[in-house]
Amino acid sequence: MHLCYIDEAGNGQTLDPAKPDAPPVLVIGGFTVPRSQVKELTWDFLNVKKHYRPQLQHVMHLSELIQHEIKGSDVRKNLRVGNHNWRRAAMELVSSLLDILERHDARLLARVWIKEEGLAFNESGVYPTSVGSLTETFQAQLAHEHSRGMMVLDSRTKVKNAPNVHCVTTRKYRTGGDGLRGIIESPVFGHSDTHTLLQVADLVVSSLLFPIACHAYLNDLTWNVHCDDAYAPLREEFGERLKKLQFRYQDPSGKWRGGIVVSDRRTAQSSSLMFGDGKRVGAGAVIPGQQAGPRGVPQAP
Predict the structure, then answer these.
(1) At what angle do helices 84-103 and 72-81 cross, to 10 degrees?
(2) Under a CB-based contact definition with an 8 Å cutoff, are residues 231 and 213 in contact?
(3) Which superkingdom, per the lineage (predicted)?
(4) DSSP strand E in 115-243: where?
(5) CATH assignment of the domain containing 126
(6) pLDDT truncated to tens, each residue of the chain (301 aa)?
(7) The whole model's pTM is what?
(8) Eight-class DSSP state of 176
(9) Cα-flanking dihedrals φ and ψ of residue 71, to 5°?
């Protein structure tokens, strides 16, 4: 059995120079992990928290350690405006996060949406679409692994949660057969202060994918606080590791799907920019590199 943990970074706020702190991207994603690795991954992550938050070294109760969160937004802030020691600690934290994901056979999956300036962004439509896409990727991985699985989404509000599940529930129980046979139940919702691995999902999307996307696709927006050259080292140092952690698969038509998928509404640039192996050669064009798939199987970008 596998578990899949999903969180988001960003929101539906319009990208506008009058709002320099508006998130220029929305990232919905996370990771999958074999059930047999969940406990070890959890403890490794708790040890990472204690290492980078020394005040947690001597907490009396496990619940206190679990509830204390290291937020991806704080990691980004340390990279942008922190001193040398803070920036180094932020990079080391991200490296430690990838270490434990690699160690426990985790796979990354995400939808990254690049906004267009001045245009309304339909978050209520994009979010369920993204969950549906991630569910398909998870189902493909379960079929590949001959496994079953369940998804845990970071809880928002009831009004926002419900549409994100209906798109999966209707596919599982519609007349004509279950198209998501490996997934044992519709996604459930959890809170990050009670579900430790949702904190890992937050760090994946908020301290890695969100800032990398901001820098790779929107570094010309100098007026936006999130488009900062301070994020460049994330892609330079961790892009290749992110690429290898993806789960990618071919659909019946032979098209490669899954992994970290970017929808660039500004210039239609390739997803390969996330990993530093694509080079801008003009609006809407890149020179892509090859991506490594699960278990080292070479795959198309």
Answers:
(1) 140
(2) no
(3) Bacteria
(4) 149-154, 188-190
(5) 3.30.420.10
(6) 999 999 999 999 999 999 999 999 999 999 999 999 999 999 999 999 999 988 888 887 898 899 889 999 999 999 999 899 999 999 999 999 999 999 999 999 999 999 999 888 888 889 989 999 999 999 999 999 999 999 999 988 777 777 777 878 887 777 677 778 899 998 899 998 889 999 999 999 999 999 999 999 999 999 999 999 999 999 999 999 999 999 999 988 889 999 999 999 888 898 999 998 655 434 333 333 333 344 333 344 4
(7) 0.89
(8) T
(9) -85, 140
Residue-number span of the structural domain to which 153 is assigned: 2-299
Radius of gyration of the chain (CA): 19
Tokens describing residue 65:
């350690």
Name the domain count of the chain. 1
Determine the longest span between alpha carbons in the chain, in angstroms. 59
**Alpha helices, DSSP H only, in 223-273?**
232-245
Q: By three-state DSSP, how is residue 283 classified?
A: coil
- Bridge partners (DSSP) listed for residue 31: 5, 108
Nearest to 226 by CA among 2, 8, 10, 3: 10
Of 93, 4, 3, 86, the residue nearest 45 (C-alpha):
93
Phi and psi torsions of 201, nearest 5°: -60, -40
Q: What are phi and psi of 284, to 5 degrees?
A: 80, 10
Q: How far apart are CA 11 and CA 13, in angstroms?
A: 6
Distance CA 102, CA 113 (A): 25
Q: Are strands 188-190 and 149-154 parallel, antiparallel or unpaired?
A: parallel
- What single-letter DSSP state applies at residue 226? T
